[in-house]
Amino acid sequence: MDNATATMTANRATIDPREAAHFGALAAEWWDPKGSSAMLHKLNPVRLAFVRAAIDAHFGSESRSLHPLSGKRALDAGCGAGLLCEPLARMGAAVTGVDAAPENIEAARSHARGMGLAIDYRAGELGALELSGFDLVCSLEVIEHVTDKAAFLAQLADALAPDGLMILSCPNRTVPSRLLLVEAAERLGHVPRGTHDWSQFPTPDELRALAAGAGLVLGEPRGIAWSPIKGLHLSDDLSLNYIVTARRA
Questions:
Q1: Lower CB density within 10 Å: C or N end of the chain?
Q2: How many domains does the chain fold into?
Q3: Is 199 within a domain?
């Protein structure tokens, strides 16, 4: 992809107004571990374990260090009300969180103030905010909700510093994910109705191709699986959900 094409791709809109409205309506309950975002609260520790290991591996930080991101800038694109932003801030990063729903940003700002955390929260199209130079760029459980995956990945790539680390996660488009993440989870009330469109889940191969188009190289994905004994956990099983690092090619 030449520079002109890359710029045109990155400037395309990616926000689906229906998705923004859906998640914005849940903003008031985002921090309630028993509310509509309960599944995210269960998922977050698993994602954070991967994120922390990836940070240590990429930046060479000591695994016992409390502030492995000290002196670094981190971006969470599609931050919701800040479930990832706040741990990143506690790791020492100067954090910027971006979300499509203004209601989420207001909830995120309010919660961060209560926690004594200084996080730069912004609402709107990622590409329109002209963000760049971030040492760490995260976008977890977001790409399946955007209207233009290629443009969104190009925007994430534009925000990443040349030697930076990116972390992505999303559901996989498989029969098990349709049965468990969409049919069962939404019918049983574990996830709000209308949260997922199974057809929009990218497979690991599709995400790798999209990343390559944005000038990124993916690492080896890890699955986020579920079992009655372990609950949600990192696994070699990619059939439900996966999380992966990326860097500039």
A1: C
A2: 1
A3: no
| pLDDT, tens only, 24-33 | 988 999 999 9
- For residue 178, being part of any structural domain is answered with no
Amino acid at 243: I
135 vs 115: CA distance, rounded Å:
24
Indicate the DSSP class of residue 100.
S
Alpha helix positions (H), the chain:
3-10, 17-24, 38-59, 85-90, 102-115, 149-159, 175-177, 185-187, 204-213
What is this structure's pTM? 0.93
pLDDT tier, 160 (very low <50, low <70, confident <90, very high otherwise): very high
Q: Rounded distance, CA 248 to CA 229, Å?
A: 38
Domain contains 230: no
Enter the DSSP assignment of 182: I
Please check whether residue 109 lies inside any domain of the structure. Answer: yes
pLDDT at residue 124 tops 90: yes
